Amino acid sequence: MTLGVVVLNYLNYSCTIECVESVMRQRGADIKTVVVDNGSTNESSKELATFCRPLSDVEFIANSENLGFAKGNNVGISALRSQGIDRILVLNSDIVLTDENLAMKLEHLTVPDNVGIVGFRTENNEGQNSTPRNVTVRSGFTILRDIYTTLGGFKNKYITSKPIVSTVKKAVIQHDNAPRILNPNSETLHGAALLFTENFFKEYDGFYPGTFLYYEEDCLSILCQKTGMREMYCPEYKVLHKERGSAKMAWKKDAESVQRKRQLESRTIAQKLAKMSTKQVQEQFRFKH
């Protein structure tokens, strides 16, 4: 199985190169990498094109404009899908793969049929882990289902823990290296490093393209809330998140205010997605045709 890798760049080409170099150091795996420059206004496109040109397993794509996080990554995902690759690792440009056997492990990772996305320990330079994250946008139906399930109602094969108990369990489970399927009503994966599996691509095409930046993980959790698809957290696998994002480079002095504005915009969009019917939500993730 070929593992696809997508790295999206905006302005921060030095970080992107460092990320790709960590991918190139992976051993024992067949990897095809796509680097997408998202309409950078600096020398990123030129620098990345020069860097990628001699690399036979690295493709470079330059978007003519900044499409945002979701659409920008979807360009890379689409390029890999057109080559028949259906297990794709999407990395932020400030991610470094510190385990040189990670790609090989992901190639051979067995996932349950209902798992569409896999995530890992996402640690910063101080070793602090940011995965999983709390879900902040939920559909009304899932809230009612939480209550019914917790009170001993129907048993759904896709629900792996009772919502009220899951929060209590989190403190105990977070140090356990065993993979676990997340309850989509309470937890979601960190979007800095996500493995989209063949199960996901049987039904959907990529990230929900409605947001420009932020809440991409919540939109994926909404898809899980509405359907039987699930996310799996594998804490035994670890990546380094240097947290040197492109956003602050772009916004400079106004970083905090622009960030807040983007967050509010994306939250509103995610809330609208959560109010859609299951069928409507599914169609939002099918945009290739």
TrEMBL record:
Keywords linked to the UniProt accession: Transferase
Superkingdom as given in the UniProt entry: Bacteria
Nuclease keyword on record: no
Domain Glycosyltransferase 2-like: 5-142
Oxidoreductase found in the keyword field: no
GO molecular function, one term: transferase activity
Protein name: Glycosyl transferase
